[in-house]
Amino acid sequence: RRCNEIADEKTVKAPSAPKLSKTEYTYNGKTVKPELIVKDTDGVTLKEGEAYTVKYDSGRKLPGKYAVTVSFKGEYEGSVKLYFRIIPLKTAKVTAECTDTTVKLSWKKADGATGYRVYQYNSDTGKYVKVKTLTGTSYTVKNLKGGTKYKFAVKTYVKDDDETLWSSSSKTVTAYTKLTTPK
User: Fold this and answer.
1) Which range has highest mean pLDDT (25-29, 46-50, 171-175)?
2) Which DSSP letter does residue 180 get?
3) Rounded to an integer, what distance in angstroms lies between the CA atom of residue 11 and that of residue 30?
4) 4, 65, 70, 83: which one has the fewest Cβ atoms less than 10 Å from its Cβ?
5) β-bridge mates for residue 117, sequence order
6) Are β-strands 24-26 and 19-20 bridged in parallel, bridged antiparallel, or unpaired?
């Protein structure tokens, strides 16, 4: 500006925060490539290759946390890292074998899972509580009351560097312990 007169003026547009269309996927054995949405501050969609480049972490098949790096170019500057997760599959059908004081829960191995956590429904609180975390595909809950109804669920998990990724819960399995033999 010289004497309140504008000598040259240029509007600089900036990219707004890029977003991934989805940040959580369930493991299916296929490579995941989330859709990227990049717009400028005026809401105009920017084109990959012209305004930015994208680099995806390698792999992106197994459960875990992955990064997408967006590097701006041309009239835009800077870079942004976005993250998405692939969570493990939930366990297949959980089955129960009962005695008068135990319930043995069994399930099939879930692809890509590190381990499992068994939950038991607590009718007093109306919530499921953790019973056991394990790597095997069966667990026996002991010291139960005979002739009683119990509910259980199982979740799979994967440890990924700094966090544990959990699947959704299996379908609830309802088990009835056998009546105690009279003495």
Assistant:
1) 171-175
2) P
3) 43
4) 4
5) 133, 155
6) unpaired
